[in-house]
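Reviewer 2 asked us to include a model.

Predict the structure of this chain.
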Amino acid sequence: AMPEVSSQIARIQQQITALQAQIGALIKGTPAPAPQPAPAPQHRAHPHPHHHPKPVHKPKPAPQPHHPAKLDKPNVLSMPSPNFGDRPAGTKIDTIILHHTATSGTAQDTGKFFQNRAVQVSAHYVVGKDGTIVQCVPDAKRAWHAGSSDFHGREDVNDFSLGIEIVNKGDSHDPYTDKQYEALANLVAWMMQKYDVPMDRITGHRNVSHEGKIDPSNNFDWDRVRKLVNQKLGR
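Predicted model (structure tokens):
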């Protein structure tokens, strides 16, 4: 029995020695640092999915004055008439008078009529139903179209006006054609721009005559002419 006890004591001593060695190793070793709390996650700012940056409003430039494009004179057929005179010295063209011819036919027919010195009548221009424009008297000269007349109390309208004859029977039934309105608007718009004539100084022979003239006829569309002219002038 004694050898068995001795053997057990020896094993216990070996176990104690091993434990002591383990404890010594633990005492000599460096303890692990205490765990540090993980840093709080930093969230990058993200724009709101429906957020739109505010636009930067730049001051608007001051509006520039409107200058309509310079209009070219419409194509005209020259049929010079001898029936004209000089305007009074220094007279400015500031009025446009519209007439109807009280005839059928063409602008050339009326132009030929004005070439007869005996008739003692003329106009600066004639506008045919096909849109043809005939020029019979130079703008600078005084055509014989208005007769005895006044406009806003100013006598002798021929002195300061341009006269345009529009081919039409003048019976208030004969239609003025689309081509005629278009050609007339081109001519009037060019005149207004060139001579600085205001719209309210474009009028009919009936409004200036002392002789009871009725032209242009009642079926002449003044509103259409004014609208077309304003379009040509970029208004």
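The radius of gyration is 51 Å. The helical segments are 2-28, 107-114, 178-195, 222-232. We have added this to the supplementary material.
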